[in-house]
Amino acid sequence: MSFAALSEHLGGSIGLAYAPLGLGQPAKSFGDLREGVGWSTMKVPLAIATLIQAKAHPSQDTLRLMRLAITESDNNAAMALWSELGSATEAAAQTQAVLREGGDTTTVVPPEPLRPGYTPFGQSNWSLAAQATFAASLPCMADTG
Q1: Of 103, 109, 90, 88, nearest to 42 (Cα)?
Q2: Whole-number Å distance between alpha carbons of 38 and 99
């Protein structure tokens, strides 16, 4: 079954993006869904920004917060990591810098929530292609182990 046929069969908007492993490799996309709010996927670049700030030697508490943020999608833990990066503007800039290092040249991380009650970083509009490029770059980036 082709992707177009699958998409038609499932109904609604569907999208897929992939990129070969390597730093900044271009992604290929299929489907009509091309971008959306990043939500919890943004916790990965946030955690990496925290590691970079700690010069790859985070405290046990920071490691605990990272584990909770990523494995349990704990927004309170993620916001604690965000606050470790300084002001909201500094945290957004550092998280966005991680995206740039991973080949994502377009995503903007907002410093303040766009919708009340949600994390600012989670509300980043993150295209599927940029997510795939970033994910494919992870093995080649420092402090991503």
Answers
A1: 109
A2: 12
Beta strand 35-37 pairing with 125-127: antiparallel
Asked whether 141 and 105 are in contact (CB, 8 A), the reply is no
Distance, CA of 14 to CA of 112 (rounded, Å): 29
- The closest alpha carbon to 111, from 126, 142, 131, 90, belongs to 90
State the CB neighbour count (10 A cutoff) for residue 114.
Answer: 12
* Tokens 């991380």 sit on residue: 109
If pLDDT is split at 50, 70 and 90, which confidence band does 4 have?
confident
E runs forming strands in 7-103 = 15-18, 28-31, 35-37
- Judged on CB neighbours under 10 Å (0-12, 13-18, 19+), 103 is buried
Sign of the CA dihedral running 19, 132, 101, 47 = negative
pTM of the predicted structure, to 2 decimals: 0.94
